[in-house]
Amino acid sequence: MSSLIGRSQSTRSKNDDHKSVPKHRFALSSLRGIQQPELSKKLYKLIKSENHVIGAYEQAGKESQGVASQLSDWGEATEDESLSDISDKLAVLLSEIAEQEDVFAQNLEESRGTLKQIRNTESSVQPTRNHKAKILDEIAKLKQKEPESTKLVTLEQELVRAEAQSLVAEAQLTNVTRQKFKEAYDLRTAAIIERAEKQILLAQHARELLSLLDDTPIVPGEDRQAYANELAAREILNDAESSLRHWTKTAQPISSSESKLGPNAMASHVEPPTTSSSTVAAPATTTTASTTAAPVSTTGAAATEPAFTAPAAGATTTEVSPPYPTSEVTTNAALAS
């Protein structure tokens, strides 16, 4: 909870006309949209739009606090003791309600940061897709122009490796996307619930304050009864502070398998492939290159263990096949069969 209620029982300006300078959220990253890979462009736009939303919540909170201060100043200017006291304490609660908008904006920023992890993974997968597409395109062109070219063998070998890398990258992408999507919107919806519940608590105490104001009509020349609810109004503020201090989260946790996700964005329970006695046949005129695919890193740290294990075609033993597609899982089976 904000310390606003505990620090002061009033929001009156006390002739202080100083206004805080609003934050400017512009950054050079605003110019990077056109440089985003095709795969991550849509999420990049969503994250950028969220940035504007967060700024709007922050600004709304500041404007609302300003309005609350003006309410207190107006109540004092009425020279009505009851109205002056009630409006001042009401302004304190309204200011605290506005403060929740800033807290909400901070929680949205955390959710937005989680979405960035998906965007970064999408960006890292795009080159893998592009590389595979480029090789396929080169093979198609060469088959049309020089169907007997020996270069086809080399390109087909590269395609096998590219397909292995693609399988790993796509698995990492779907793992990160699903897990971080749940995490991001878990944070967002929990923040919505927290903001709503806290503002409801404050609004309910604000309504209690309003009930202390006697609005019984009087006739000309009649005096109103002396205001006697100052202590009751102060107690309502204390109760509001206590309610916020003892508020606990009510949002039920969302189930997640995050603990099963390894540091290389692959299932942590998958055993690394073991050495197999089987080998991949290669054309007599060429040497088969190593085709172990390096996982795409999503955390900046290099993965040290292969993440893809495919069963050997027609296998009758417990041996593990090489970590690249066989003739059963690739459309280019010339080198994998």
Concise structural overview:
Residues 272-319 have a biased composition (Low complexity). The chain has 337 residues and is an all-alpha fold.
Overview of this protein structure:
This protein is mainly alpha-helical and 337 residues long. Helix content is 54%, strand content 0%. It contains five helices and no strands. The chain has helices at 4-7, 41-77, 81-145, 151-211, 230-245. Helix 2 packs antiparallel against helix 3 (81-145) and helix 3 (81-145) runs parallel beside helix 5. Residues 17-22 and 273-337 have low confidence and may be disordered.
Helices, strands, pairings?
Blueprint (H helix, E strand, L loop, with lengths): L3 H4 L33 H37 L3 H65 L5 H61 L18 H16 L92
Organism: Dissoconium aciculare CBS 342.82
GO biological process, one term: eisosome assembly
InterPro entries: AH/BAR_dom_sf, PIL1/LSP1
Strand content: under 5%
**The first-level CATH class name of the domain at 37-214 and 229-246:** Mainly Alpha
Would you report the number of β strands? 0
Q: List SSEs in N-to-C order.
A: HHHHH
Tell me, rounded to a whole number, the average pLDDT.
Answer: 78
Note the overall shape.
elongated
Largest sheet: none
Q: What's the helical proportion of residues?
A: 40-55%
Low-confidence spans: 17-22, 273-337
Assembly annotation = single chain
Roughly how many Å is the radius of gyration? 32 Å
Give me the CATH architecture of the domain at 37-214 and 229-246, please: Up-down Bundle
Q: How does the helix and strand content classify structurally?
A: mainly alpha
Query: How would you name the CATH homologous superfamily of the domain at 37-214 and 229-246?
Result: Arfaptin homology (AH) domain/BAR domain
Number of helices: 5
Distance between the termini: 65 Å
What name does CATH use for the topology of the domain at 37-214 and 229-246?
A: Substrate Binding Domain Of Dnak, Chain:A, Domain 2
Organism: Dissoconium aciculare CBS 342.82
Biased composition (Polar residues): 1-12, 249-259, 327-337
Keywords: Phosphoprotein
Biased composition (Low complexity): 272-319
